[in-house]
Every structure is written in C-alpha cells, then in structure tokens.
Task: inverse folding
C-alpha cells in the first residue's frame, strides 16, 4: 500500500489548509516588502527582516525543542544555502521595485521548472519526456509574461526569473542535507547566514529607519517565518502531489493585494502566462509523485 493511500482524509485536509495559510503569509510578506522597497534598498530590508527573525526563531526552538534542535553536521552546506537564499531574495525584492506583485509572483513560479531541469545534472535523476514537455511548456509561460522583444518588455522581468533559478538551486541543495536534518535547524540557518552576509552591504546602503516602518519590518519577519514553517509542515502532513498544487493559490493572493494596495490589474498576457506556468508545475509535481 502506498504512503498516499494510507493518508487519512483529515490529514490531507489539514495539509491543504496548512499550505494555503503558509502561501498567504508569504504573499503578505512580499506585499509589505514591496511597500518598503520605495524607501529602503532590498539588501537593507533583508538584513532587518532577518535581524528580527533570528532571535524570534531561536526563542521558539529553545522553548519547544531545546538547544539540541539547533545542532547540525552540515554547517558548510547551510552556509552555501544561506548565500543562495540571500541572492534569490535580493533579486526578487529588487523586482518588486519595478513590477506589479502578480507578475513578479507568477514569474518566480518558474522555480519548479528549473528544479526539474537542474535535477538531471546536479542530482543524476532521470526525467521522462512528459516532465521535459512540462518544462518546455513552463518556459513558454515565462516567455508569454516577459515578452522579450515586445514593446512591453521590461528588463526587470528577468529579475524574478533569476530569483526562480537561484531558488531552484536552493531547493535542490536541501536534498544534500539528508532526511535527518530537522525543520527548525534548517529554518534557523536559512535566516542566520543571509543575515551575516547582508550585514556589510546593508551598512553600506543604510537609510535611517522610520519608526512607523518598524512594525512593517516585524510583519515581514513574522509572515516570512510563519509562511516557510507552515509550508514545510504541509508537506509533512500530506503527500507532495496533494499539497504542492495549492502553492499556486499565491497568484490569487498576489492579484488581490496588488489590486487593493496599488490598484494593479494584471494584463491578459500575465494571466495567460501564469496559468501556463501553473499548469506545467502541477504536471511536474504529479509526474514526480508517480
């Protein structure tokens, strides 16, 4: 009997609700970050967010699990993953300075497509023709949104695509950590190392932080940490093939928040490209599950 067939309907429902909540928190994180990019350099935002998140995560872990939960045998790999996280976050937050939230969100969904393509040279995995077909379709979706060579092309559209590529490397590197690495340990180092790396650059571009913006920085620290935690927990509650497609509910949140905050209405081609990328990503997840 497969693991999926052993799952209880209650666990599946909890997994779906958990990933939907996690996705909502991450989009709120992105929306607040977009507001802050009008006043601060993205590297400063990342620094301040992680400066708040690190002690918050350490406190929670020590309270729930004790200091043993923070030990790792893969410190060097965590350091590399932290660098990837910093680069991906910087590219994505920078894109939010120029692009509508919906478009940036849709383009960063190229990450599962890159993961599939990179899993061949980096992990030695075999990818069948159906998944390669989904990869090609996904890149077509990216081209539909970016429209290179068209009159509406923006070079900034390449930033979330670059972020998706870096995130793909980040996600693949998790496979090298092994199943024994705890979720809380991974969460800590994924904010601690970017904080260390961002410090000198943040000080170089530093702008005085308005007191009214401190609460927004707390919001992105809380929303970002909660989002990552809930999404990780969702994959523990239910099979990836069940919960992963609900990651695309972020497009709904991004569209709604973009309209409410900035009165942004996604273009026809952004909607079409987003649907194509989402469809290809779901196909990849379902083929992975099989």
Result:
């Amino acid at each position: 009997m497969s693991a999926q067939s052993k799952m209880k309907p209650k666990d599946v429902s909890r997994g779906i609700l958990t990933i939907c909540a996690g996705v909502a928190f991450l989009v709120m994180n992105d929306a607040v970050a977009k507001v802050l990019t009008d006043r601060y350099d993205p590297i400063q935002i990342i620094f301040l967010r992680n400066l708040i998140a690190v002690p918050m995560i350490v406190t929670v872990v020590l309270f729930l699990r004790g200091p043993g939960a923070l030990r790792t045998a893969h410190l060097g790999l965590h350091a590399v993953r932290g660098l990837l996280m910093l680069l991906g976050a910087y590219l994505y937050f920078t894109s939010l300075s120029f692009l509508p939230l919906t478009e940036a969100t849709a383009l960063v969904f190229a990450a599962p497509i890159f993961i599939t393509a990179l899993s061949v040279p980096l992990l030695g995995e075999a990818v069948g023709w159906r998944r390669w077909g989904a990869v090609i379709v996904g890149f077509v979706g990216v081209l539909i949104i970016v429209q290179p060579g068209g009159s509406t092309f923006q070079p900034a559209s390449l930033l979330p695509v670059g972020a998706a590529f870096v995130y793909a490397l980040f996600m693949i590197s998790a496979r090298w950590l092994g199943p024994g690495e705890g979720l809380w340990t991974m969460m800590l180092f994924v904010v601690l190392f970017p904080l260390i790396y961002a410090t000198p650059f943040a000080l170089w571009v530093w702008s005085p932080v308005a007191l009214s913006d401190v609460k927004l920085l707390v919001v992105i620290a809380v929303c970002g940490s909660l989002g990552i935690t809930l999404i990780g927990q969702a994959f523990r509650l239910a099979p990836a093939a069940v919960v992963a497609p609900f990651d695309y509910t972020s497009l709904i949140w991004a569209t709604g928040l973009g309209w409410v905050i900035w009165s942004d209405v996604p273009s026809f081609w952004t909607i079409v490209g987003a649907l194509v990328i989402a469809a290809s990503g779901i196909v990849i997840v379902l083929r992975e599950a099989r």
